[in-house]
Amino acid sequence: MPTVIQRQAWMATLAKAELELLEKLVNKLGTLPKYSFLRCPEIGLAMVRGRAGGTGEAFNLGEITMTRCVVQLENQGEEALAGFGYVAGRSHRHAELAAVCDALLQTSYWYDQIQAEVIQPLQAEYQQQQELKQRQAAATQVNFFTMVRGE
User: Fold this and answer.
1) Which residue in 27, 50, 134, 145 is a FRET match for 58, CA 20 to 30 A apart?
2) Per residue in 70-97, pLDDT tens?
3) How far, rounded to the nearest angstrom, does the alpha carbon of residue 97 sit from its chain's CA centroid?
4) Residues ≥6 apart with Cβ < 8 Å to 44
5) Mean pLDDT for the chain?
6) Which residues, in sequence order, are CB contacts of 142 under 8 Å at separation 6+?
7) How many angstroms separate the CA atoms of 98 and 83, rounded?
8) CA neighbours closer than 13 Å in the CB half-sphere of residue 128
9) How far is it, in rounded angstroms, from Cα 42 to Cα 28?
């Protein structure tokens, strides 16, 4: 049984993934178990909160469009498992795939395969994208210095 922290990590990975890559990786898995919707993908708003300087008083920054979905795996010998998908934006398919992967990751049969073939490649891709952004930002960095005038 995964811990709360492990589940939060894979749900964050699924939510941040690019839909095309997520779709490609899930399609490589082959035939997935059947599932039904407990909550069909739906679009709504969520309030984003921020903190001045990361540590100050919390304030409402604004609203973000989100899509959520809840699925339940069918005929899984174990208890009925529900998977949740919450993604930024308006993609029904992204939320559905995230929910399906979340449900599959809770089963002992699919856990290792989903981790190896979906979550780890998504994390590697996200890391590469972050490093690219950091390199691009570093390339525009300007260093200021002060020269002392001699008297």
Assistant:
1) 134
2) 999 987 555 678 999 999 999 999 999 9
3) 11
4) 65, 66, 67, 68
5) 91
6) none
7) 8
8) 8
9) 26
At position 52, the amino acid (one-letter code) is A
The count of residues in the chain is 151
Strands 35-51, 58-73: pairing is: antiparallel
Instruction: Characterise 53 by phi-psi region: left (phi > 0), alpha (psi -120 to 50), beta (else).
Output: left
Cα distances (Å, whole numbers) of residue 138 to 17, 68, 69, 126, 143? 24, 35, 38, 18, 11
- CA-wise closest residue to 99 among 8, 15, 4, 2: 15
pTM equals 0.83
| Longest CA span, the chain | 86
Q: Distance between alpha carbon 108 and the CA centroid of its chain, in Å?
A: 21
E strand or H helix at 67: strand 58-73
